[in-house]
Amino acid sequence: MKIGVFICHCGTNISATVDVEKVAQVTSKLAKVHFSTTYLYMCSNPGQELIKKAIKEKGLDRIVVCSCSPSLHEKTFRKCAEEAGINPYLVEIANIREHCSWVHRDKKEATLKAIDIVRLAVAKVSRDKPLVKTYVPIEKRVLIIGGGISGIQSAIDIAFAKYPVTIVERESSIGGRMARFDKTFPTLDCAACILTPKMVTVSQSQYVTIYTCSEIEEVSGHVGDFKVKIRKRARSVDINKCTGCGACYAKCPVKVSAKFDMNLGLRKAIYVPFPQAVPNVPVIDRQNCLWFSAKNASGGTKKACGLCKKICNFGAIDYDMQDEIIEEKFGAIIVATGFTQFDHSVYGEYGYGKYKDVVTGLHFERMASSSGPTGGKIIRPSDGKEARDVVFIQCVGSRDEQKGVPYCSRICCMYTAKHALLLKEHNKDAQAYVFYIDIRAAGKNYEEFVKKVQDEYGAIYLRGRVSRIFEKGGKIIVRGADTLSGAQIEIKADLVVLATGLIARPETVKLAQMLHIPYDQNRLFTEAHPKLAPVETVTSGIFLTGACQSPKDIPDSVATASAASVKALGLLLQDKLEKEPLIAKVDRNLCSGCRACVVACPFNAIDMKEIEDRALKCKRDVAEVVEGVCTGCGNCTVVCRMSAIDIEGFSNRQIMEEIEAL
Amino acid sequence: MKWFISQETIKAPFQKILEKGCGEKVARCYQCGKCSAGCPMAFQMDYLPNQIIRMIQLGMEKEVLSSKTIWLCASCFTCTARCPREINVAEIMDFLRRHAYRTRIIPSGDTEIPLFNKIFLRNIELFGRLYEVGLIGMFNLLSGEFFKDFTVAPKMFLKQKIGIFPWRNKNAKALKDIFRRSGGLEKAQRGRLLYPKLIFLNLSKKFIGKIEKLK
User: Do A488 and B60 touch (CB under 8 A)?
Assistant: First the structure.
């Protein structure tokens, strides 16, 4: 065995605190070490050439590179060794920068420590085994969970590359939150006008399958081969037969408040949520439908309504439709589940629920929308009169560690400014008052937009939170402060609009557990790296987009959607998927079949398998690692009481060897 | 301080008069505070310059006009030079002083600057250039502190800093003309320097204060 040790100066990063020449001198005398040298920048091209040359000329068969953290240049040196003709897994990195030179000042001591670190690496490399990369096949289809603007954009991008893609949407139409908005900041494009073309593109594409009224039931498998169970809830209307003529919901006698319109308007028991819905097929709300309530109440004996079935010329209404479970395979998954609004009822001082005229931003959007329940009039929900003085309160739930979430929801400053503008456009006599803490308008043309609202639309911005809202003489009295003038402020308002923050959906946790992706303390999905891998998760093959990761506005959501689809496409474009061989391996002779590792594995990568034990002449269960799923985290090796399971490249033997060398 | 905001206060004529009077749009101010940061008189002010602008935005006319700040402003124009939103703060202060005269809202008890201001201008109007003895005498008389700075006078006289008689400007007539015209334009009614009511109030306040101190 001929080990080569290559010590990097890293400019002065290492050599300033570690006497690299001394390290080279001492380590060259270690057993099995055949060659030792130093260089200014080992990662540079000449540095790599030096390693290659030494491997060839000195006949080295394993190398130790003493440089920075392996997370930075391990790949570089593995590739370098491979090019010089030795197995890339016979390379070890001794981290003498982050672990030594950067954290110490005393040169003498640091040099001694560096020598120790190199000795450990030499001990470890002497026990390294040559490993071969494994390959797994890829199912060339993408699943997108969520049919909002993020999901739609991802689907368009993937379908453009002619790869099949499936959107799973919980509601009866795709479109998500954006379908409810009136205008979009800062350009004031009509939200529906820019969203519906995208929805139509998706529905017309031959590569896109849309499952509406559907939810993810179960996910198993791994990158390139996810097996997904999708529950398609009974719509009670046959999508293939329905033409979207609308006769059924015109005739339906039941009226209930519309969730899509934030309960400001009414809809029928059979309905499409909004006129441009995709697919434009109604759905029966079984809780409110007379046919279903009669059937449930009297066991089907009582005469039920059934009007919609009678009126439908195409026989599309099917009361007996059942939930359907679809099982499909996907190579990659894009999570675009979006957000939900903060529940502001925790703020008793804002009187939500108590006063009808205290509403949220989404209510305002529906009122401002010309296809909304008020036909574009900003009214007081209590008496239907047009609102003249409207108070907007920002940061409801956001930036509140006591009652809300600690983070800034990012979009509220902008949408409140937009609301203040829309108010003035809908009613010339109206006046907007905005209570804010800070204006965070960090985006292209955002600051200019807010300034425009203040200058040209005369919105009064008051810096401070509101402390109390109460009713007096048919008006809503808002009591707040303006910290800029130092005055306590009282406003007689007609309508109060709360800019509620964005929070993760409560179902996030369940989905995260199914997909094995982490989420943070606010239940927002965590990206693999906040800067360098913003749309990937630590589970390979699963990508994030939109507001399920962090509060995002439409431009950001679309940008991340395209980013995620490129990442997914990059995966699909490969013939086979390369996997690092540094994963768990079971020694069947030692395995007792206790299943401790099965429980410990966070990725469900360990199965039990029955084998024929020739020595004992019986059949017994042993653990088996699913190669494609295992990430080599090492949880299983820790719990294995027989030491039967080992991580390749980090075996128990190697670690013992390191300890002995110390 | 408590303030009731409504369309009436925000759309009160005050802001429009101000915008017309000095051509500045106060709504543009985003309250960065740079004007107050550089103001050399800020340590004496009851409201900082940025607070004054804010109060104008909220329509607090009376509070603004009765503040000491507008009279303490030395018109050094540091605020104007530094404002990132290009608001001429010094010009606004100037306007506010004029407006205060017009509406007769003057902080009578707290500061003598309005009074001094008036006497000074009247002095210039009469003599064409400053007549120091007349100014000081008049000011002491009307502010109620008759012997203020009395001991310094002989020294200054000996050093020829002040004279007993006024010096006449060669072209006093032209100056008078300027005053007449600007006064006509602004309707500032400078001719009526002494509002007897105001002076009486001022003096009585002073005396009451002194008697109370003696007690």
Answer: no
Query: Chain A partners of B26 at a C-beta cutoff of 8 Å?
Result: none
Task: Determine which of A222-231, A345-354, A373-382, A383-392 has the lowest per-residue pLDDT on average.
Answer: A345-354
Of A443, A453, A381, the residue nearest A411 (C-alpha): A443
Pairing of strands A134-137, A576-579: antiparallel
The DSSP line for A367-384 is HHSTTSTTTT--B-TTT-
| CB A393 within 8 Å of CB A412 | no
Helix (H, G, I), strand (E, B) or coil at A131: coil
Q: Which residue, chain included where needed, has tokens 């499409």?
A: A272
Spatial distance between the Cα atoms of A195 and A190, rounded to a whole number of angstroms: 9
pTM for this one?
Answer: 0.81
Q: Which of A622, A661, A568 is nearest to A140 (CA)?
A: A568
Strand partners, A92: A64
Residues of chain B whose C-beta is under 8 A from some C-beta in A? 1-7, 10-11, 25, 27-28, 30-31, 50-51, 54-55, 57-58, 60
In a domain, B2, yes or no: no
Asked if residues A602 and A518 have their Cβ atoms less than 8 Å apart, the reply is no
Closest by CA position to B55, among listed A487, A509, A93? A487
φ and ψ at residue A424, rounded to 5 degrees: -65, -35
Check: CB of residue A450 under 8 Å from CB of residue A410: no
Between chain A and chain B, the number of residue pairs with CB atoms below 8 A apart is 62
**How much is the mean pLDDT over chain B?**
82
B28 contacts A458? CB cut-off 8 A: no
List of chain A residues whose C-beta atoms are within 8 Å of the C-beta of residue B50: 484
> From the CB of residue B94, how many other CB atoms can be counted at a distance below 10 Å?
16
CB A77 within 8 A of CB A26: no
B125: amino acid identity, one letter: E
pLDDT in tens, A563-594: 999 999 999 999 888 888 999 999 988 999 89
Query: Inter-chain contact A482–B54, Cβ cutoff 8 Å?
Result: yes
Range of the domain at B48: 7-103
Query: Which residues of A are less than 8 Å from B6 in CB distance?
Result: 389, 491-492
By C-alpha distance, the chain A residue nearest B55 is A485
DSSP single-letter state for residue A94: E
Domain termination site, one of B59, B80, B103: B103
Q: For the ranges A167-171, B14-18, B148-152, which has the lowest average pLDDT?
A: B148-152
Residue B51: CB atoms within 10 Å: 24
Half-sphere exposure of B20 (CA within 13 A, CB side): 7
A180 lies in which domain range?
A: 142-335
The last residue of one of the domains, among A113, A133, A153, is: A133
Q: Which of A284-293, A337-346, A469-478, B7-16 has the lowest mean pLDDT?
A: B7-16
To the nearest 10°, the Cα dihedral for A54, A57, A58, A60? 70
Which of B103, B126, B155 lies at the terminal end of a domain, its last residue?
Answer: B103
Among A279, A311, A335, residue at a domain's last position: A335
Q: Is the peptide bond before A555 cis (omega within 30 degrees of 0)?
A: no
Characterize the bridge pairing of strands A324-330 and A502-504. Answer: unpaired
Q: Are strands A584-586 and A645-647 parallel, antiparallel or unpaired?
A: antiparallel
Write out residues 482-541 of A within 8 Å (CB-CB) of B: 482, 484-492
- Radius of gyration of chain A measured on its C-alpha atoms: 32
